Amino acid sequence: MTDILMPALSPTMEEGVLAKWHVKVGDTVKAGDVIAEIETDKATMEVEAVDEGEITDILVAEGTEGVKVNTPIARLKDEGGGAAPVPKAAAAPAEAPKAATASAPAAAPKAAPAPVKADGERVFASPLARRIAVQNGVDLKSVKGTGPHGRIVKRDVEGAKGGVAAPAAASASAPAGEVRKVQSLAQMGIPDGSYDLIPLDGMRKAIARRLTDSFRDVPHFPLTIDCEIDGLLASRARVNAMLEKSGVKVSVNDFVIKASAMALKAVPEANASYSPEGIAMHHHADVAMAVAIDGGLITPIIRAAETKSLSQIATESKDLAKRARDRKLKPEEFQGGTFSVSNLGMFGIKSFASIINEPQGAIMSVGAGEQRPVVKNGQLAVATVMTVTLTCDHRVVDGAVGAKFLQAFKAMIEDPVTMLA
């Protein structure tokens, strides 16, 4: 008899949500069978069995949140009656924790059963949606889910028919973390009852922790430059006309990713990461692109972007963005980039400075392209101008290196033909 443990689906994962079981007690599984789905702060991943055996116990119920890595979640009796390896996460880069046989393991606490509709069908909802529903008295059985596979997500609960009732004020029965939060706000002069408290989900906690650490610990500085993109817009129109029959459409951001990658190869000192052991000079420009998703953001990566055509980048970025919003990315698809691009131009933001995504050495923030007055050859003219800001880790990218990178990027983005040289 062997305990199946909560796997580590990424090097930084500490806990997750056991979203769904695909097996029940008494089922026999074989290697490669999907037995469960685990929600991390970034994605929902399937867990596969790596050996044959019979499921004898389910120790953690569907929907249980905050399940720590290496916590027993089920028991497996292998065909020979001995120990069986722990299942692994499909396509996870880190090896899943090995199973450890225990003589009398304590069962992990189980979550309250998921809501059930009148016809007996289970109601599937994201952890954030469930919490908001409880706080606001929304019956999930009456909510239609618009998430993947009909899953109820935050927007479904907030838009539930009849409106959302005001949440009850925090009481002694509220989780300790929420009570402390309310007290901390009261100490800053914000009275109870003047706001709605939405508990932090795993993704928001991870974002808060990582970006706080980065902003506090990384000595950073911004560099800003304006780029005229009338030539880029004309080139984009010609490229899309050529690609019309293929159904591929290249965006301005695809040009930005390609130009960034080529500039990183032209100025390799900017394509680097700091570590206590030394500075890592990366062989390829693995460009991460910031994608806003429900409850936070994620940065899927275009690997070796300097080697790919604009149509390849366009196809790949569209696919990654869609699967990011569906939380279907594999860990290796959003971990390990060498440089990041964050584009808020589609929201009309003129310029901004992003926080570095460690351990990357820099991140580039892209604003909206807009018509502005410019001076050319002593004459006033109008051009479409886009402002970009490079935030640099000063331990890796010095001011002169960052300036050279922006010069190379500007030359390529203003005249895309130079990217082909």
Write a structural description.
It is a single chain. The chain folds into three domains: 2-89, OB fold (Dihydrolipoamide Acetyltransferase, E2P) (Beta Barrel), CATH 2.40.50; 127-200, no CATH class; 205-420, Chloramphenicol acetyltransferase-like domain (Chloramphenicol Acetyltransferase). It has helices spanning 127-136, 154-158, 176-187, 202-217, 230-242, 252-266, 310-325, 399-414, and strands at residues 2-5, 15-21, 28-29, 34-39, 44-48, 53-58, 64-68, 72-78, 88-89, 220-228, 272-275, 278-281, 287-289, 291-293, 296-298, 301-302, 339-343, 362-376, 379-393. The termini are far apart. It contains eight helices and 19 strands. Helix 6 packs across helix 7 (310-325) and helix 6 (252-266) packs across helix 8 (399-414).
How far is the N terminus from the C terminus? 62 Å
Mean pLDDT metric: 82
**Architecture per CATH nomenclature, i.e. the level-2 architecture of the largest domain:** 2-Layer Sandwich
Domains counted in the coordinates: how many?
Answer: 3
CATH fold assignment of the largest domain = Chloramphenicol Acetyltransferase
Element order, helices and strands? EEEEEEEEEHHHHEHHEEEEEEHEEEH
Secondary-structure class: alpha+beta
Strand count: 19
Number of helices: 8
As a whole number of angstroms, the C-alpha radius of gyration is 25 Å
Strand order of the largest sheet: 10-19-18-17-13-16
Give descriptors for this structure.
24% helix, OB fold (Dihydrolipoamide Acetyltransferase, E2P), globular, Chloramphenicol Acetyltransferase, 19 strands, six-stranded mixed sheet, 3 domains, alpha+beta
